[in-house]
Amino acid sequence: MRLDKFLKNSRLIKRRTIAKEACDQGRIYVNEKVAKASTEVQVGNKIKIAFGAKSTTVEITSLAEHVTKESSKEMYKVIE
């Protein structure tokens, strides 16, 4: 699954266009490397999202095309 689509489906970022812009600005890391929006992610990858002084690191636990708001939280676990 593409990184921007995962960020939107998991509700870590509300819109796919915002996820793409964050990737273009170098604010999203996959396995400690700056990632493009088109980067393919898999279960077990670690994603770091840096917005301003805040940063969040999560690990992907599942991938799903269509998710509800409640089940979106099961797609990842927060590490930091």
UniProtKB/TrEMBL annotation:
Which key words tag this protein in UniProt?
Answer: Protein biosynthesis, RNA-binding, rRNA-binding, Stress response, tRNA-binding
SUPFAM superfamilies of this UniProt entry?
A: Alpha-L RNA-binding motif
Gene3D superfamilies cross-referenced by the UniProt entry: RNA-binding S4 domain
Q: Name one GO biological process term.
A: rescue of stalled ribosome
Q: Which domain of life is it from?
A: Bacteria
- List where this protein forms a coiled coil: none
Is Chaperone given among the entry's keywords? no
What InterPro entries does its record include? Answer: RqcP, S4_RNA-bd, S4_RNA-bd_sf
Q: Where is the RNA-binding S4 domain?
A: 1-64
Q: Name one GO molecular function term.
A: ribosomal large subunit binding
Q: Which Pfam families match?
A: S4 (PF01479)
Q: How does it assemble?
A: Associates with stalled 50S ribosomal subunits. Binds to RqcH, 23S rRNA and the P-site tRNA. Does not require RqcH for association with 50S subunits.
Q: Which family does it belong to?
A: Belongs to the RqcP family.
Name assigned to this protein: RQC P-site tRNA stabilizing factor
- What species does this protein belong to? Marinisporobacter balticus
Question: Gene for this protein?
Answer: rqcP
